[in-house]
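The records we work with from here on pair a chain with its fold. Taken together, the C-alpha cells spell out the fold as the letters spell out the chain. The record below shows the convention in full.
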Amino acid sequence: MLHERLIDALGADAVKTAPEDVRAYAFDAYTDGRPPAAVVLPAGTREVCAAVKIALDCGEPIVPRGSGTGLCGGAVPIEGGIVMSLARMNRVLAYEPARRRARVQPGLINLDLSRATARDGLFYAPDPSSQRISTIGGNIATNAGGPHCLSYGTTVNHVLGLEIVDDNGEVFTTDVDRAGYDLTAALVGSEGTLGIVTAAWVRLMRLPEAVRVWLATFADVDSASDAVSAIIAAGIVPTALEMMDAVATRAVEAAFAAGYPTDAGAVLLIEHAGFEDEMNAYESEIARIAREHGANSWRAARSAAERDALWAGRKGAAGAMGRLSPNYYLQDVCVRRSTLPKALHAVEEIAREYRLTVANVFHAGDGNLHPLLCYDKRDAKQVAAVIESGNEILRMAVDLGGTVSGEHGIGYEKREAMTAVYSTEDLAAMARVRDVFDPKRAFNPEKIFPAGVRCPEVVPA
C-alpha cells in the first residue's frame, strides 16, 4: 500500500523499493542503519508535501538526506521508514547579485553555488571539507562550518530564510528580518528533526580583493597552538588558521604532494583575505608572532596554484588516511584555544592506551578538533578500541570545558553524550521545542536526544 501510494504521487522513477536500492541509503559516512521501507527522490516542494502526508498516514517515519556525507549517523534510518533523498532538488531558484543573496534548493552542492556566482564576484562562505559533495540542505541540518568559519561564521550566519515542510505536510516559511522569534536560527542545526527544508535564501559575500596563504612549521603542536592564541590575542583574525600534526602531514604529503614539509612536528596553514595594500603588513605581523612562538620556517604561497595545492591537501586530509590504515574514525569536538595543547596531549595518550594511530587535523582558530583514529574494521578488537577511545575523547573535551560536537552534529552517534553537556532541565526544554514542531517524532527519530527523552520526562544516560 505504501509503495503504491508513493508511486502514484511521485512517479515510479522517484520511488525506490528494491532491497539492493534501499540498502544504499541505510548508511552515511559514519555507520550502517536499518534499510528503509522505501526511498523517495522528490523533484520539488509539492512532491515533498505529498510524500510526507502519505508517510504519516501509513505511520512511517521520514529521514531527510542530502549526499550522505554525515559523520554522526544523522541521515541513517534507525527505525526504517522512508528516506527522503533531496538530491534531485539541486537548483538555484532565484539569484539576486545586487542584494548578494540566492534562493536555492536543499540538494544543491555547496561548492556549486560559489562556482555559479563567481562571475559576479560573489561566493558562499561556509566551506566544510566535504563542500565538493555535501549539500546546502545537509549543511543547514548540521550548521556546518569549515576552515573559514573562524572569520566568516558557520552556516547559521549565512541563512536568511527557509521554506519548511512541517509534520502535516504543509509549507511554512521563515525570514530573519521578520519581527518575533528567530525560527530560522532554531531550524538551522536541527538535523531534520523539526521539518524538511525545501528551499533556503542564503547570504552571498563579495570575493576579496586579495587572498594570501602562508605556511608555518613548528617542532610540536604546543608551540603551534601558542602561536594561534597569540595571533588572535593580538587582534588579528585571519580567515583561516588550520593545523595538522606530523602524522597527518606526512600522510597528506604522500597522497597529494601539496608542498607540506614532512619533518615538522606541526604545520600551521594561515589564510588572510582583504585589500591588497594591507597584505604585506598582515604577513609581517603574523610571521613575527609565529617566530616568537617557535616557528622554524615561514613560507608564502607564491601563486594561486600553490595556494590551491596547500588547501587541497588540507581539505583532503581525511582521504589521505588510507595510506595509514584501511579505516579511520573521525571525531569532532571543540575546546577553548587555550586548552588545545592539553586536549591534543590527551588525545595522543588515549590513542596510545588503545594502541591506535591517531592523526590530528583541526580548525585551530576556534579549537575545533578532528582526531582521526586509524584502524582495521576486520579486527573486532580494534573496532572496540576505536569506540572506547572515541568516547574518552568526548569526555576529555567536556572535562576541559568544551563540547561534544563542533560542526558535524549529534545525529545518532553522540546522542547519549548530550547528558554530559546538558542538564536534565536543559534537555527537557529542547524536547519541548521538538514536540511543538513534531509531536509524533515522525521526522528523523532517535536523533540528537538520548534514548527515551521526551517532553514530560528526560532520562539521563
In short: Residues 150 and 240 are 6 Å apart (CA to CA). The first strand starts at residue 15 and ends at 16. Residues 380-399 form the longest helix (20 residues).
